[in-house]
Amino acid sequence: MFTGIIEELGSVVAIARPDGDDASDAVLTVVGPLAASDARPGDSIAVDGVCLTVTSVADGAFVAEVMPETLRRSSLGGLVPGAPVNLERALPANGRLGGHVVQGHVDGVATLVGRTPGPRWDDLAFGAPGTLTRYVAEKGSVALAGVSLTVTWVSDEGFGVSLIPTTLAATTLGRLTPGDLVNVEVDVLAKYVERLLATGTTGAPAPSARAAFGDLATEAAR
What we know:
By secondary structure, the protein is α+β, with helices and mostly antiparallel strands. The protein is built from six helices and twelve strands. It folds into two domains: 8-89, Elongation Factor Tu (Ef-tu), domain 3 (Beta Barrel), CATH 2.40.30; 108-198, Elongation Factor Tu (Ef-tu), domain 3 (Beta Barrel).
């Protein structure tokens, strides 16, 4: 898992299509000295918010394979050599949860529709389908291109965030222009709550579990 606190701004140096087909999978080579410094094959690194598995490491760069499903669902399919990408290594068990719980499982993409500069910050407005905005809450958390952010407003057609100078300088979000796409990962808690509510009528505990809960309740009441 990740926290949405970007560690490094990396750069794509190569994108290979093993089958020679834009609809196939891709092999991505990314330069990121910090991310690659302690990476080993099998480790996870979030690239613009997408959790990828490292297949090899050399000379401050790592290689990861990207499946067609990931290319369709995220902005990775539009990457070109030289493109900057946000990088975050997986959170160690004893690490600080500085942002929020981020899985690196992108739910879809949003489009930057407006940017309003402030004295020391920028307000960004994103257009997104209702399939995404239904999980977004004002003052809740959302991950954009892997960056943990607080939602400033939300509607059925989109949402807004505000970026401090550090975020503008240290991530790809500072370089976005209207029309650009960003990966969106909504708060995983919202998805689980919806799932539980949808299956509530058929997901009752088994009789043995109900009995166990009943015993616990009886003991607690004594």
